[in-house]
């Protein structure tokens, strides 16, 4: 059994969680300790007690530790990628790529630890010097989702440590394995006891304790809108700093002047790869009428070539759905779309493979109206809706007609339309002639409206959440 990591020690939990591969339900991935209230209390106390000394730690020490963590993750990316594919269901190439991204994130923030900037300003009053500096927030609770089991924990943990914060990491119950392996690497990196703590367990025990405890100075959360709303309310009640990344119902606009091959590849990659289980997935394909029928025909041809199967098998394009509850949600929305009058142009079927798993063929719906439930609510699966648009202006209106605003894409050969869309799309990230899913590790990540709340994640923008600013005056005489 894999234990909890609290105050520099490996400890047993109140319960044990057993995880199985969604590609093969007979494949037991591992047994992981699950924290109860006593273990959570120990972890919060440890992180809180370590915060003062880590706050004043040497930046070179932080940089060296983070670089060491990134190096080992990268050296073991095939091994860790195999684990990720087993526990979450991403295809092996995607899983190895995600591990490589996690390694790069740690190495990026190793250097950011050396670049914590401040300002020296002239005062309007004679004889005074003004310094503006950044300081750690303190103790940060991190609540990670299941769809990126190592990349998202990495892009939260690495900047938290780089900027001098102590960490409480709660991975998703569905996929604790990658976080455990990352914690094991961190445990040998030279961090002082209590600076990093792995506290696996259910949200109602671990997550709620972190959100409600005044010793936890900030919460960084990625997950569902419903849970994020409760996290926000809990943090607001005690005025804790909070950062939320939640849902998306992202549009990909395809104009009649676009390169059809480019548009289809962007749509297939964005909507269906990673089994559509990405908050940046383009589940709304808004297509100009002049190219609508050609686009749908090309999509069906391309989807017919897609191979769905065991995440570890060679040649597989799309792995299984992550678990039974997510599969049931996908199937429920497929039924909703049919009942709303949308046409199932391709897929949406349960598939039998050599192993027992949660295999679903990618579903493409046409004849969709923007007010249909399946075209408005986040499904988080391999389901996409094709919505016709009269022209560019209509397409932009449809793209912005959503409560979410994470990412938006457009396929066009018109510089005029591309430039206008980048300016007027109501989203935190905009893609032109590339899939909506896929953001570099060194640039800001986040959205608008109901998708995000608080400071951006990733890149140099991460400093905004993980630090606070202090203004100091000195009388120079």
Plain-language structure description:
By secondary structure, the protein is of the alpha/beta class. It folds into two domains: 4-246 and 451-475, Aldehyde Dehydrogenase, Chain A, domain 1 (3-Layer(aba) Sandwich), CATH 3.40.605.10; 251-432, Aldehyde Dehydrogenase, Chain A, domain 2, CATH 3.40.309.10. It is 38% helix and 23% strand. The protein is built from 14 helices and 22 strands. A seven-stranded mixed β-sheet has the order 14-15-16-13-12-18-19, sandwiched between helices. A six-stranded mixed β-sheet has the order 9-8-7-10-11-21, with helices on both faces. A hairpin with a 2-residue loop joins strand 1 (4-6) and strand 2. The longest helix has 21 residues, at 92-112. It is globular, with a radius of gyration of 23 Å. The model has no long low-confidence stretch (mean pLDDT 97).
Radius of gyration over alpha carbons?
23 Å
> From the coordinates shown, what is the CATH architecture of the largest domain?
3-Layer(aba) Sandwich
Q: How many domains make up the coordinates? A: 2
Q: Provide the helix percentage.
A: 25-40%
Q: Beta-sheet strand percentage?
A: 15-25%
Report low-confidence residues grouped into runs of 5 or more.
Answer: none
CATH fold assignment of the largest domain: Aldehyde Dehydrogenase, Chain A, domain 1
Indicate the CATH class of the largest domain.
Answer: Alpha Beta
Helical stretch count? 14
Strand segment tally: 22
Physical arrangement of strands within the biggest beta sheet: 14-15-16-13-12-18-19
**CATH superfamily heading of the largest domain:** Aldehyde Dehydrogenase, Chain A, domain 1
- The first-to-last residue Cα distance is 64 Å
What would you call the structural class?
A: alpha/beta
Shape: globular
Mean pLDDT: 97
Sheet bearing the most strands, described? Answer: 7 strands, mixed
């Amino acid at each position: 059994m894999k234990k909890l990591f609290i105050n520099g020690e490996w400890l047993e939990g109140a319960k044990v969680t057993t995880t199985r591969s969604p590609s093969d339900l007979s494949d037991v991935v591992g047994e992981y300790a699950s924290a109860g209230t006593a273990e959570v209390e120990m972890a919060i106390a440890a992180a809180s007690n370590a915060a003062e000394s880590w706050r004043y730690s040497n930046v070179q020490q932080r940089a060296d530790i983070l670089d060491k963590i990134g190096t080992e993750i990268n050296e073991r990316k095939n091994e860790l990628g195999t684990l990720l594919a087993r526990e979450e269901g991403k295809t092996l190439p995607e899983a190895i790529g995600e591990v490589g991204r996690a390694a790069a994130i740690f190495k990026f923030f190793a250097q950011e630890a050396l670049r914590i900037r401040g300002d020296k300003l002239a005062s309007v009053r004679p004889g005074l010097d003004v310094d503006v500096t950044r300081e750690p927030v303190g103790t940060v609770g991190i609540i990670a989702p299941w769809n990126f089991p190592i990349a998202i924990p990495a892009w939260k943990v690495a900047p938290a440590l780089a900027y001098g914060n102590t960490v409480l990491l709660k991975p998703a119950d569905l996929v604790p394995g990658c976080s455990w392996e990352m914690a094991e690497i961190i445990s040998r990196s030279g961090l002082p006891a209590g600076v990093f703590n792995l506290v696996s367990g259910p949200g109602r025990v671990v997550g709620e304790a972190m959100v409600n405890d005044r010793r936890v100075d900030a919460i960084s959360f990625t997950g569902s809108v419903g849970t994020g709303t409760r996290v926000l309310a809990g943090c607001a009640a005690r005025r804790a700093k909070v950062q939320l990344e939640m849902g998306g119902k992202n549009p990909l606009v395809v104009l009649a002047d676009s390169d059809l091959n480019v548009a289809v590849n962007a749509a297939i990659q964005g909507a269906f790869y990673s089994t559509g289980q990405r908050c940046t997935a383009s589940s709304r394909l808004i297509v100009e009428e002049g190219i609508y029928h050609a686009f749908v025909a090309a999509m069906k041809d391309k989807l017919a070539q897609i191979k769905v199967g065991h995440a570890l098998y060679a040649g597989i394009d799309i792995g299984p759905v992550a678990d039974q509850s997510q599969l049931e949600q996908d199937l429920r929305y497929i039924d909703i779309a049919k009942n709303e009058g949308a046409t199932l142009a391709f897929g949406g079927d349960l598939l039998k493979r050599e192993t027992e798993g949660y295999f679903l063929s990618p579903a493409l719906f046409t004849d969709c109206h923007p007010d249909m439930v399946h075209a408005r609510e986040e499904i988080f699966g391999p389901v996409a809706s094709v919505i016709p648009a009269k022209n560019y202006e209509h397409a932009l209106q449809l793209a912005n007609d959503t409560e979410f605003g994470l990412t938006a894409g457009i396929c066009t050969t018109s510089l005029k339309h591309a430039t206008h869309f980048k300016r007027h799309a109501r989203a935190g990230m905009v893609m032109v002639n590339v899939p909506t899913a896929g953001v570099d590790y060194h640039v800001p990540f986040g959205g608008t409206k109901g998708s995000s709340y608080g400071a951006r994640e990733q890149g140099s923008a991460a400093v905004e959440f993980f630090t606070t600013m202090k203004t100091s005056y000195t009388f120079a005489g």
